[in-house]
Design goal:
heterodimer; A: alpha/beta; six-stranded parallel beta sheet; four-stranded mixed beta sheet; elongated; B: alpha/beta; 5 helices; binds iron/sulfur cluster
């Protein structure tokens, strides 16, 4: 019986969606493994180093953040800080308003999903258009992304073709190439009309104050070619200490996310366009967003801040594969989401306290994670937190162990139970008073008692 | 906003204060990230071309090959960096070439020809910068991007390219044509950027 929310979601997931999710996660994962192990002598050492680099970053944010701020400013970028999602949205709006800007093209950024930027801007009369093909489809469908790297992993070409037809992007045609061409044609004019291009950042180098962005489609490159203002939303944990450390992380990110050696476009942005360059932004704004991250940093789960959002853990997770992304009811699905989402939820932690239970603790996520995050350990810590704080969702579907705990913590009760247990050996099965216990006993032959008495032995030992 | 800065940094400091010690920054050897297949590779141009083909890019060895590519695809109108005209003039005879990119006619250009700053052999990547790329849009919006690369500017691998990042506000590594697999995981090239990424190698 499906008692947990995520079980219910999995049970009601249509078969065709389950098949698309399962097949594409499996294919990506298999390609990734092959690539990583074929191409590197010691991929596990590589993961370990990557994890150490990111752990160093999160444990030194107090010095690295001011350092990168100074570098960015020296490069000609303007730096802003936002404690909450709302503050981040307001910061974006203020920059737009200062330019009288009404139109924005958006590259894919998980932070903007987190803070619901597009909704906020829409409410303030600003068009914020998603340009990543998958995100664009999510946007016209008023849907939510269901995978970190592949936002429409749950949709098939027929649904997409129907959406395009509805939006006036041509007559029904479900050929993936036609779909892509139509999006290309529509969006390239949107870039040219937009006043502002918004991106995230995969990494920010403290050493050089360069923002590093990776995309395959080239949408972020376009967002930084046509509009006059560039805004980058950056989670405060996205730093890397030195440019050379990108050699470790870029290699791992592309392989882990999409089984590529390198993403098609890797962009190092350190400021507004060069003096002689005819196209590109004249202003660059970097907004550092906290939105719960400092709380995660203060918790015993801070390792999750190493995450580089590659999505590899989703692809191998047996629960994600069955339930798909929407079942996680939050921006980050899968194993990373099961840790990160309840933590980022802050006071709303109890609403997502069931997510850490959505794992078989098989360890597959830890095994693939390019920054070696011990996700299963973190899940256990969060399960404990849920219990400790009495979050009702943390107990749904858990076998009641209260009676056992009571017995195990009181010596008299324990001794009585031991005696009772022994007595059961002599009691004819039919006479066992509890039906469930009787049924259990009937099916099993208890092994014959061979040892002595542990307590007696212990007392004896103390004396001698 | 400045309040937010202090608030965030204050919370960061408070969160880190109880740590008995901080994780050290590890050192790592270049060998760690070097692909097995690259160990011992010596001809950088050959490796680069092989890798470029591996990501569906198109290496071109001469201006004549460029002329063939244009003719074969009937790309008759495009953009060319004016600095490259002396080198490519003959190859471009017979096609309509503009030396400024007019963004109001973005769909009129079949190709854009610009210069590369460098390349990475290991991954088949070309490096574009504001300093060397005459127009970001011209290197991006047309269906075909043809980039002119000097053979001596090829780095062996990613660490070498990272160690020599130029002082430029906009450095772009391009590894093959723009692509997506968003629709049912099927690979489609030419999404927002070029569907054809060609590299003309020169001395
Ligand atoms: S937790 Fe690890 S595997 Fe999962 S998305 Fe983050 S970096 Fe990738």
């Amino acid at each position: 019986m499906a008692k947990q929310l995520i079980d219910q979601a999995a049970a009601t997931l249509p078969a065709d969606k389950r098949v698309s999710v399962y097949q594409s996660t499996k294919a990506t994962h298999e390609k990734r493994t092959k690539l990583l192990f074929d191409q590197f002598n010691d991929p596990d050492l590589l993961r370990q180093r990557a994890g150490e680099i990111k752990q160093h970053v999160i444990e030194n944010l107090d010095t690295l953040l001011p350092a990168v701020e100074a570098k960015l400013k020296a490069n000609g970028a303007q730096v802003h800080w936002a404690s909450t999602g709302e503050a981040a949205c307001e910061a974006v709006l203020r920059i737009m308003q200062a330019h009288g800007a009404k139109k924005m093209v958006k590259a894919k950024t998980m932070v903007s999903e987190e803070i619901e930027l597009a909704h906020y801007l829409e409410k303030h009369g600003i068009e914020a258009l998603e340009t990543d093909l998958g995100e664009f489809i999510v946007q016209i469908d008023k849907d939510h992304p269901s995978h970190i790297v592949r936002p429409i992993i749950h949709k098939n070409r027929r649904e997409i073709a129907t959406s395009f037809e509805r939006e006036g992007l041509g007559a029904y045609n479900d050929d993936p190439e036609t779909i892509t061409r139509r999006a290309r044609q529509f969006l390239r004019h949107k870039y040219l009309e937009a006043d502002v291009g918004l991106t995230g950042a995969n990494f920010v180098s403290v050493e050089s104050g360069r923002i590093v962005l990776v995309t395959n489609e080239g949408n972020s490159r376009f967002s930084l070619a046509a509009p006059k203002v560039h805004i980058a939303l950056v989670g405060i944990e996205k730093l890397v200490p030195r440019d050379r450390d990108l050699g470790v992380l870029l290699n791992l990110l592309a392989r882990s996310a999409t089984a590529q050696q390198l993403t098609v476009y890797t962009e190092f942005i350190s400021g507004p366009k060069g003096a002689t360059q005819p196209d590109g932004p004249e202003e660059m704004h970097v907004i550092f967003v906290d939105n719960g991250r400092t709380e995660v940093l203060a918790s015993d789960c801070r390792e999750i801040l190493r995450c580089i959002r590659c999505g590899a853990c989703l692809n191998v997770c047996p629960v994600y594969r069955q339930a798909s992304g929407h079942a996680y009811r939050s921006v980050y699905p899968g194993p990373v989401g099961a840790v990160l989402s309840p933590l980022l939820a802050g006071k709303k932690f109890p609403e997502l306290a069931d997510l850490p239970k959505a794992s078989s603790l098989c360890g597959a996520c830890n095994e693939v994670c390019p920054v070696n995050i011990p996700i299963p350990d973190l899940l256990l810590r969060l399960r404990e937190k849920g219990k400790r704080e009495g979050a009702p969702l943390a107990s749904v579907g858990t076998p009641p162990m209260g009676a056992w705990a009571l017995m195990a913590s009181q010596p008299t009760a324990w001794k009585a139970a031991l005696f009772g247990g022994k007595a059961l050996n002599y009691l004819p099965t039919k006479l066992i008073p509890v039906p469930a216990l009787r049924a259990w006993e009937e099916k099993r032959a208890l092994p014959a008692w061979r040892g002595g008495e542990f307590r007696k032995w212990m007392k004896q030992r103390r004396k001698s | 906003m400045s309040n937010d800065r202090e608030a965030i940094l204050g919370r960061v400091r408070a969160a880190l204060a109880p740590l008995p010690q901080r994780a050290a920054l590890p050192d790592w050897e270049r060998e760690l990230v070097r692909m097995r297949q690259m160990q011992g590779a010596s001809d950088l141009t050959a490796t680069f071309c092989a890798r470029l083909k591996g990501v569906n890019g198109t290496p071109l060895q001469s201006a004549a090959e460029l002329a063939d590519l244009l003719a074969k695809n009937q790309w008759t109108r495009g953009y060319c960096d004016p600095a490259l005209l002396p080198l490519l003039g003959a190859a471009l005879a017979g096609v309509q070439v503009e030396t400024t990119f007019d963004r109001t006619r973005v769909d009129d250009y079949a190709f854009g020809i610009t210069r590369a700053s460098a390349a990475i052999a290991e991954t088949g990547t070309v490096v574009l910068t504001d300093g060397d790329t005459s127009s970001r849009l011209a290197a991006l919006a047309p269906w075909a991007h043809i980039v002119v690369l000097k053979r001596m500017d090829i780095f062996p691998d990613i660490p070498a390219a990272l160690a020599a990042l130029p002082a430029d506000p906009n450095i772009i590594w391009v590894t093959g044509p723009s692509k997506t697999a968003d629709v049912e995981g099927i690979l489609i090239e030419g999404v927002h950027g070029p569907g054809v990424q060609a590299v003309l190698l020169v001395d």
